[in-house]
Amino acid sequence: MRKHHQSGAALITALLVVALAVMLASHMAARAYFDNARYSTLLEREQALQFALGAEAWASEVLIATREEADDAVDHPNELWAQPIAPPPFDDLPVQMEFRMEDLQGRLNLNNLVRADGQDDEAAMNRLGRLLLHRELDTAIVPAVMDWIDTNTEVRFPDGAGDDHYSRLDPPYRTANRPMASATELRLVRGVDDEVYRSLAPFVAALPEPTPLNVNTAPAEVLRTLADGLSEREAQALVDARPEEGYATVNDFLQEAPLAGREVDAGTLSVGSNYFLLRTVVELGRTQVRTQSVIYRSDAGTTRVIMRRQGFIE
Q1: Domain limits at 154?
Q2: Helix 141-149 and helix 122-134: axis angle, to 10°?
Q3: Which of 122, 133, 113, 126 is nearest to 185 (CA)?
Q4: Which of 34, 171, 182, 300 is deepest in the core (most CB within 10 A)?
Q5: SS3 265
Q6: Residues in contact with 211: Cβ distance below 8 Å, sequence separation at least 6, in sequence order
Q7: Which of 82-86, 179-183, 236-240 has the lowest mean pLDDT?
Q8: Is the CB of residue 266 less than 8 Å from the CB of residue 291?
Q9: Residue 68 CA, distance from chain mean position
Q10: Cis ω on the peptide bond leading into residue 258 (within 30° of 0)?
Q11: What is the pLDDT of residue 4?
């Protein structure tokens, strides 16, 4: 009887050892599988990012070539940089790419609202105010944005917003008191929720220096902000009247009929640009990488990337 008990105990012990071995082997196999999948994903992501950086290099070369080939510094929507690009598939990798560029000087530069000397820029204020009215949004956002970007702590009356307002929020924060690094900072300004931001986002930018508005690339919604009383139809007429190669001078643009008799600050307008936005989507295997890059092209014809972000949500 004792011998049978010993044999049974030995069998149970052997079964336990086998079970533990199977569990350990399964755990190791599962861990190896997930580690391999993780490694593959990281590798695909890194490769996709390199393709996105390649798109940046291509965009920079196109911008340089465009400036070198042109007889004057005119930028317009019929140039190569403004066309959507979809490269053919690559033979060695299952990768697909899409990228396109946009002229950021075809938008209202939020940092134009306050000049470097701390003085308010009336033309920029009026244009943002008109955009807000046309989008049926609260014009009190204008002084709130100005309080966000100016360097002093004084609050504009009655619609400004300073630390006293933001410090009482949950969570609390303070005004930047410097130019915006990105137009996404609008989400932090009093009166701007997600719906307001999405309504304004296609028409505003935050560039690191005061910039004129390029009348060759600005959409109708932005051109409509140039003067009081411009209708949606008149703004679209300005877009439709653009020459195929763009206006050669600002004065040529100001001769258009919808602007007759209206006061437009010509000194804040241009027909060329220095700041461009590159949007890139790279799909490699199971991985998708989306990037946005702000490219600066100097008047001397050199370029550099001044901002890049990835994994964003529109």
Answers
A1: 108-268
A2: 140
A3: 113
A4: 182
A5: coil
A6: 105, 109, 112, 274, 275
A7: 82-86
A8: no
A9: 27
A10: no
A11: 56
Q: Which of 236, 253, 268 is the last residue of a domain?
A: 268
Sheet strands (E) in 104-221? 108-109, 204-205, 213-214
Query: What are the contacts of 159-168 at 24+ separation with CB within 8 A?
Result: 161/189, 161/190, 161/191, 165/190, 166/190
223 CA to centre of own chain = 21
Beta-carbon count within 10 A of 285 CB: 15
79: closest CA among 293, 246, 304?
A: 246
pLDDT digits (tens, 9 = 90+) for 48-61: 899 899 999 999 99
Asked if residue 88 and residue 113 are part of one domain, the reply reads no
- 60 and 154 inside one domain: no
Looking at the structure of the chain, the number of domains it has is 2
CATH number of the domain encompassing residue 261? 1.10.40.60
Question: Does 145 lie in the same domain as 287?
Answer: no
Tell me: do 249 and 195 sit in the same domain.
yes
Same domain? For 19 and 77 the reply is yes
Pairing of strands 108-109, 303-310: unpaired
Residue 280 has φ and ψ, to the nearest 5°, of -130, 135
pTM: 0.85
Same domain flag for 182 and 43? no
pLDDT of residue 236: 98
Q: How far apart are CA 242 and CA 216, in angstroms?
A: 7
Catalogue the E-assigned strands of 54-191: 95-103, 108-109
Q: How far apart are CA 178 and CA 77, in angstroms?
A: 32
Give the pLDDT confidence score for residue 287 in this predicted structure: 87
Q: Say yes or no: 283 and 152 in one domain.
A: no
The pLDDT value recorded for residue 255 is: 96
Q: Do residues 72 and 146 share a domain? A: no
The conformation of residue 206, written as its DSSP 8-state character, comes to -
- Is the sign of the CA dihedral 112, 167, 193, 306 positive or negative? positive
Q: pLDDT grade, residue 226 (50/70/90)?
A: very high
CATH number at residue 79: 3.30.1300.30
pLDDT in tens, 289-312: 999 999 999 988 899 999 999 875
